[in-house]
Write a structure and sequence with these properties.
CATH superfamily: Ribokinase
Oligomer: single chain
Strand content: 15-25%
CATH class: Alpha Beta
Shape: globular
Number of helices: 11
Helix content: 25-40%
CATH topology: UDP-N-acetylmuramoyl-L-alanine:D-glutamate ligase
Length: 325
């Protein structure tokens, strides 16, 4: 079960001249009153739970989407896309007279992007419409970024995990990260987390630490079993409580757009752990899945199938290094 959002993404490909730099930071410059010519406009489906459920279905898993979609044109397209990919949508909630979550993604040739986003129907996921009964039947729950209004479903998830012990992948959202590791619901959820996914900045913020080593140590002490911290082109630092692993990026991958790379990575690692593969192999699976996604526009187009994943795991030159903690 993938819990979280579904978003309709509209990619607007800007010319490279729209990029500029100010105070050492790259940004888009769109002068007020100007008419800006764009290279390309592409419509795709995205959103955390949409991406991860589609990713897991592509990898041969029986995947279910748990989220809220509006009864508009974008919602129809999101639902059709999930069904086309083989995702179980019978527990998706369709809200009448509500706009589905929608993003306009300004993108440049080097993969740089700015996302203009409205949560729309995603904000309607909360405890009163979360399907606890179907969650109890799951082998694995994937908790994606959720809106602040949905945080109360964590109480149900903790209760379900403590009783029946499906396994859990957790990718905390911005509010949860800002609240920190000591927030009551965060501290309750961590001991049930089989796979925790963060980027480097999030890991330090979440744990109130200054270094990645301290962040990993803190997360382990609070009960997370497998931790993956992504850091862009620097690759992934991870631990299973016994060793610390370093997995580089797949440098052979062309970067077209980085949207959805984190979801693809988490999906690949989750799939591998579900299959009982060793953690270093799981890190490779996540990295290969992310490499597929950044090579195409949108968060789902480049997601790997199980056959392709198995082939690439056999042929990959990625070397995962490890050392004791």
């Amino acid at each position: 079960m993938s819990i979280g959002g579904a978003t309709y993404d509209l990619f607007v490909r800007l010319k490279q001249e729209a990029l500029c730099e100010e105070n050492g930071e790259a940004m888009f410059a769109l002068p007020l009153g100007s008419k800006v010519h764009v290279d390309e406009v592409i419509e795709t489906c995205g959103g955390g739970a949409s991406n991860t459920s589609v990713g897991l279905a592509r990898l041969g898993c029986s995947a279910l989407f748990e989220g809220v979609i509006g009864s508009d044109l974008w919602g129809e397209r999101l639902l059709k896309n999930l069904q086309k990919e083989g995702v179980d949508t019978q527990y998706a909630l369709i809200v009448e007279h509500e706009v589905s979550s929608f993003s306009i993604i300004l993108s440049a040739r080097g993969g740089e992007r700015v996302i203009l986003y409205t949560p729309g129907a995603n904000a309607h996921l909360h405890k009163s419409n979360f399907d606890r009964d179907i969650a109890r039947q799951m082998d694995w729950v994937y908790l994606n970024h959720i809106q602040e209004s949905a945080h109360d479903i964590q109480e149900d998830i903790v209760e379900i995990l403590s009783q029946l012990r499906p396994r859990l992948t957790w990718n905390p959202g911005g509010r949860q990260i800002a609240a920190g590791i000591g927030a009551p619901m965060n501290s309750r959820l961590l001991p049930f987390t089989d796979l925790l996914l963060l980027n480097a900045e999030e890991a330090r913020t979440f744990t109130h630490t200054d270094t990645l080593e301290d962040a990993l140590s803190c997360l382990l002490k609070n009960g997370a079993r497998h931790i993956c911290v992504t850091d862009g082109r620097k690759g992934v630092t991870a631990t299973d409580g016994e060793k610390r692993y370093q997995c580089p990026c797949d440098d052979s991958a062309e970067v077209v757009d980085t949207t959805g790379a984190g979801d693809a990575f988490g999906t690949g690692v989750t799939w591998a752990l579900l299959k009982g593969l060793p953690f270093p192999t799981a890190l490779k699976a996540g990295t290969l899945n992310a490499a597929g996604v950044v090579g195409a526009f949108g968060a789902q187009r480049g997601l790997l199938t199980e056959t392709t994943m198995q082939e690439r795991l056999l042929s990959t030159r990625l070397v995962v290094t490890d050392r004791p903690l």
